[in-house]
Amino acid sequence: MKLSHGGLALEIVVPVFNEESVLEKSITELANYLKLEMPASWQITIADNASTDNTPIIAARLAEVMPNVAYRRLDAKGRGRALRDAWSASTAEVLAYVDVDLSTDLAALPPLVAPLLSGHSDISIGTRLGQSSRVSRGPKREFISRSYNFLLKRTMQVRFSDAQCGFKAIRADVARTLLPHIEDNGWFFDTELLIIAERSGLRIHEIPVDWVDDPDSRVDIKQTAIDDIRGLVRVAGSLVRGSIPVQAIYAELGRRPIVPQSRPSFFGQVIRFGMVGGISTVAFALLFLLFQGPLGAQQANFLALLLTAIGNTAANRRFTFGINGPEKLFTQQFQGLVVFSLAWSLTSSSLLALHAISPDASSTMELVTLTGANVLATLMRFVLLRIWVFRLRTVEYASQPIPSSAKVASAA
After folding, report:
1. What is the Cα–Cα distance from 184 to 192, expressed in whole angstroms?
2. pTM across the whole model
3. Measured distance CA(344)–CA(310) in Å, rounded
4. What is the pLDDT of residue 401?
5. CA 174, 175, 176: angle at the middle one, nearest 5?
6. Beta 134-136 vs 123-127: how paired, if at all?
């Protein structure tokens, strides 16, 4: 959907809390850049969330003397709360935000908003973890950032690479749909927004950025990390329970496949599952041998089976059963872990039986026993995946009308 640009095209929100030392310099620099480099109509909004220093006075003065600069004041803290308030009140077609320290090079701003102004994408984010990104920050922040995004990818199965870079944009119509379903008002706001968007089949555009860490950053890294993990647990629970209406959001905003999806025949599923199972069995054997020495047989079996189960479920969802859409993605991954637990019980029992019969069994005998048990577990997985996890009715939702009771407006 190409946007009209009949009114205000772009509003850039700058959330601030006690930023009297850098506010005027940063807003002036941002405004000067936009005057030279942004062809679309724009506005800067300073969103002050309960500052206790001179930030409100400076912000009000800037809004009075500078054209295209506005100021909003909130009585409660929280970056997410500031963004929610400013975005909800905006009349612009594209909404963005940047951190007040301007850690991200502003040269990335035009390519950030271009795919949204054209209607090509729904959300656009800067990433500090791209192959061509240039980042200057300390080893502690680098480790925490990469660890958090690694955890996010492994637990939530997301594809975006950097959830917390303070450099994002979103189409206004998309924001109006997503904001009612975002609970967090702090630093986890970004992550929650992106998870719901991706689960709902929205297109997220990423651009590599140049980023220099602000040494005066007031972010409490430890507390933020704890809050983020709590947020992940909460969102995961909401997705499993179905309290976030991703199907309704997909029906309203999601991008349908260009070529209609079709479910492979039973014979085709057997062949494809066998291919995935064969690769998984080989991967399991290699991982077991890798972990067996330092961890022991039982722990190595558990870890190897867990890692292969995650990849196996994702591969079977897409390749074997032909499911590419966002519907029940997280629920099906959770169900896949339940199937994994059953498979692990089977292989662990075989290992216990082997040790009961032959306490001094060699590593080769352990591997042979576990490999045989894993083959049986693979057959069990196929049956459970076909009749429970990926049963037919979860596949063809994209072509079916959504009942009025499932519309986003009523879900909200």
Report:
1. 7
2. 0.70
3. 13
4. 38
5. 90
6. unpaired
162 noted as active-site residue: no
List, in order, residues 6 or more apart from 218 with CB less than 8 Å away. 17, 18
pLDDT at 4 over 80: no
Residue matched to tokens 């390519």: 111
Instruction: Please give the pLDDT value at position 107.
Output: 97
Decide which of 2.170.30.10, 3.90.550.10, 3.30.460.10, 3.40.630.90 is the CATH code for 10-253: 3.90.550.10
Q: Which amino acid is at 26?
A: S
Length of the chain: 412
Identify the DSSP state of 315.
H
* Catalytic residue chosen out of the listed positions 85, 99, 184, 190: 190
Crossing angle of helices 189-199/246-253, nearest 10°? Answer: 70
**Which three-class secondary structure state does DSSP give residue 17?**
coil
Burial (CB < 10 A; 0-12, 13-18, 19+), residue 214, is middle
Q: What are the structure tokens assigned to 397, written together? A: 């939702």
Buried-state track 229-241, b at ≥16 Cβ within 10 A, e below 16: eebbeebbebbee
pLDDT tens string 32-89: 999 999 999 999 999 999 999 999 999 999 999 999 999 999 999 999 999 999 999 9
> Which three-class secondary structure state does DSSP give residue 191?
helix
Q: Give the Cα separation of 181 and 169 in Å (integer).
A: 18
CB 191 within 8 A of CB 168: no
- Intervals of CATH 3.90.550.10 along the chain: 10-253
